[in-house]
Amino acid sequence: MRRPQFISEHARNARGILGRLIASIMARETWNENMRAMQALRIGQTDQVIDIGCGHGRSLMEIAARAPLGRSVGIDPSKLMVEIAAKRNRTLIEAGRIDVVLSGVESLPFPDAIFDKALCVHVLYFWKDVDMSLREILRVLKPGGDLALLFRTDADLKAVASFPAEIYSFPKLADVRTVLERAGMDVRVAGDDATEPALLLARKRSA
Fold first, then answer.
1. Taking residues 109-126, what's their average pLDDT?
2. Which strands form 115-121's sheet, in the order they lie side by side?
3. Is 48 strand, coil or helix?
4. 27 Cβ contact list (under 8 Å, min separation 6)
5. What predicted TM-score, i.e. pTM, was given to this entire model?
6. Which of the 8 DSSP states describes residue 2?
7. What is the tally of structural domains in the chain?
């Protein structure tokens, strides 16, 4: 069944009452996949971690638990999602262990080479320029830093048919891998190449 366009619009940039409802649903629906990506990252106790497209912010709490001596930062282009994530993590924000920032991925408001790990789950579909966005993530990662990128590819025919093409863009796995490698990362697929959603693990090469 094709997902209505207005619901997909809120998945891309949530707002209002419907956006709050969708945030609540997403927090449950995507949790296992977020856990899969975080587990693959092998987050260390002192790691500085960025969650790109953090949405409702549930993953930030888990990252903080895995990195008790580190820091987790969530970014999202939706003012509503940033508000929800900040409210969910208020205590950890006040303790200086979590920060939530309103930002798109195309221009991250952070200096070069500041993060050890980056998490990116089910948001690649909305990027206007995948190449530029991945290069920006690479910029803020330290040499040897890791990115976990989880997304559905064009091979998932059910997803392609279910989501409006005006909003969602499902890439080829090989194309995303090529962009990452060209940008300066060593890439491997976590699990079987045919697994959906795909999970790519990419490590920034040392200079």
1. 96
2. 98-102, 71-76, 48-52, 115-121, 141-151, 198-204, 185-189
3. strand
4. 55, 56, 58
5. 0.87
6. P
7. 1
Residue 9 in this model has a pLDDT that exceeds 60 = no
The CATH number of whichever domain residue 76 belongs to comes to: 3.40.50.150
- Is the CB of residue 122 less than 8 Å from the CB of residue 30? yes
Q: Which residues span the domain enclosing 19? A: 5-204
Q: Can you list the alpha helix ranges (DSSP code H) found in the chain?
A: 5-12, 16-29, 31-41, 58-66, 79-88, 90-94, 130-140, 157-162, 173-183
Between 163 and 201, residue with greater pLDDT? 201
Residue 78 main-chain phi, psi, to 5 deg = -95, 120
Token readout for 117 is: 């790990």
Of 191, 204, 186, nearest to 40 (Cα)? 191
* Tens-digit pLDDT profile for residues 68-94: 999 999 999 999 999 999 999 999 999
- Residue type for position 68: P
